[in-house]
Design brief:
Keywords: DNA-binding, Transcription, Transcription regulation. This protein is an alpha+beta fold. The protein is built from ten helices and five strands. It folds into two domains: 170 residues, Beta-Lactamase (2-Layer Sandwich); 54 residues, Arc Repressor Mutant, subunit A (Orthogonal Bundle), CATH 1.10.10. A five-stranded antiparallel β-sheet has the order 2-1-5-4-3, with helices on both faces. The relative contact order is 0.14.
């Protein structure tokens, strides 16, 4: 039995298994990250989440198109312009713990240097995020960091144990995935964002839900869907879904 898992109940393990089941059908990293953030919300109650990926741990914080759910959607622009450099999970101490245990919370890092302390106290907390945690995954194309942001008491010791157990299993899944959505058919040229939209359409998400997932307005999503349909020759969302699943 791994360290800390003895505190988990049968129900906790069931929730972990349900998360793993929800991501098990993903064939690409794009599908995996959308399924994972959905599962973290539905099964574990983590509704404020992020998924950043890159070729290395250091570059993942500059992911130009991270997946965002909940409160991080509204905070992302300010994060990118003012706070990315001071992200608490960029600290060497945080990375060392993540490499060893797959998950860490900001509260477990002890005394923080002033810039990281400002990131937590003067940005996250003042915007209603009282605690934050991250899971680090190894992917076929590099590394990924899954952020979980909570209110008071929503990320405690048991939740961290669950995230560590999940991180180990999810990392094994992510290593076997294609780094991007595969082309729908020969000759179809879609941008990475268009491919993400196409896969989310195939998962049955509405334009509103896709917008919330990708931090886009609903009107922008409509334009993406229209362009994807035109580029692929599909006449409907259902036909597009069939192409993606092939």
């Amino acid at each position: 039995m791994r360290e800390g898992t003895s505190s988990l109940t049968a129900r906790d393990y069931e929730r972990v298994f349900r998360v793993l089941e929800r991501v098990d059908t993903a064939e690409t990293l794009t599908g995996f990250k959308a399924a994972l953030l959905d599962a973290l919300g539905a099964e574990l109650g983590f509704r404020h989440t992020t998924f950043f990926s890159g070729t290395t741990y250091n570059t993942l914080f500059q992911d130009p198109e991270p997946l965002l759910n909940g409160r991080p959607v509204a905070l992302f622009r300010e994060y990118r312009t003012d706070w990315c450099e001071y992200d608490v999970f960029r600290l060497p101490e945080a990375r060392a713990v993540l490499e060893r245990t797959f998950a860490v919370s900001a509260g477990e890092l002890g005394a923080l240097p002033q810039p990281a302390l400002d990131y937590v106290d003067h940005w996250l907390v003042r915007r209603g995020v009282s605690n934050a945690a991250a899971m680090c995954l190894t992917t076929a194309g590099g590394r990924a960091l899954v952020g979980v942001f909570g209110d008071d008491g929503s990320i405690g010791a048991k939740e961290m144990t669950v995230l560590r157990l999940l991180g180990r299993q999810l990392s094994a899944v992510a290593r076997g995935l294609q780094p991007a959505v595969r082309p729908l058919t020969v000759g179809h040229r879609l941008s990475p964002r268009q491919r993400e939209v196409a896969e989310l359409v195939a998962r049955g998400l509405t334009n509103s839900a896709i917008g919330a997932t990708l931090a886009l307005s609903e009107d922008t999503v409509k334009k993406y869907v229209s362009r994807v349909l035109s580029a692929t020759g599909c006449r409907s969302r259902t036909e597009l879904a069939i192409h993606v699943r092939r």
